[in-house]
Structures are given as structure tokens and as C-alpha cells.
Design brief:
With 107 residues, this protein is an all-alpha fold. 73% of the residues lie in helices and 0% in strands. It is elongated and about 55 Å long.
């Protein structure tokens, strides 16, 4: 399990284009310790996991279990630059799709 968590943390760090020292400083640990975490030798404390999630806008479900969730930060990024008319149209489309799915399963 530590190995899988370490791989996900490494992937998060690389996605953020940060080196070990930068990422370690962001979450409040040493670069050397981060290396052992990414290698699956050690784990992060609960406080460090919470900090990692807050600073990277990644859910604890993803860090710990690999389950992707949409966070507030991801939603903000997803909808940045989108006007209210586009959002309204998207919601109407989603509503139509959900009604179609409900009708399909009720028959």
C-alpha cells in the first residue's frame, strides 16, 4: 500500500512540475523523506496528507486509494472562463441525459 501511495504522490508532484525539494517544502517535510515516501519505504503522517491534499487540490481518496474525485479546486479550474449561458446550457443537457437514462431503466 505504501508503494502505491508513493507512486501517486510522485505522479502528483510531477504533474505540478516540482522537484522533490519544492514539493517537500510545500507539504512541510524534507526532500530526503519525500524520496522515501515516493519509493514506498515510509508513509506520510495524517497531518502531511491533509496538507498535501489542501495544497494540491487532490482528494485524500485519490492519494490513499487511487479513487479520483472532483474537488472544489478542480471544479473552479474546469469552469474558469465559462460564462453563465454556457453553464446553463450544459446543465440543461445533463438534465436531458439524466431523464433519458431514467426512462431507459424504467421500461
Amino acid at each position: 500500500m505504501k508503494s502505491e501511495i508513493g507512486k501517486r504522490i510522485l505522479e502528483i508532484r510531477k504533474r505540478m512540475n516540482m522537484n522533490k525539494e519544492q514539493f517537500a517544502k510545500l507539504i512541510g517535510i524534507s526532500g530526503q523523506y519525500l524520496g522515501t515516501v515516493e519509493a514506498g519505504v515510509h508513509g506520510l503522517s495524517l497531518d502531511s496528507i491533509i496538507t498535501l491534499c489542501e495544497k494540491t487540490h487532490v482528494s485524500a481518496d485519490y492519494v490513499l486509494f487511487g479513487k479520483e474525485n472532483i474537488t472544489d479546486g478542480k471544479l473552479r479550474n474546469l469552469f474558469s472562463g465559462v460564462d453563465k449561458t454556457q453553464i446553463s446550457s450544459a446543465f440543461k443537457t445533463l438534465e436531458s441525459i439524466s431523464l433519458f437514462i431514467k426512462d431507459s431503466y424504467s421500461q
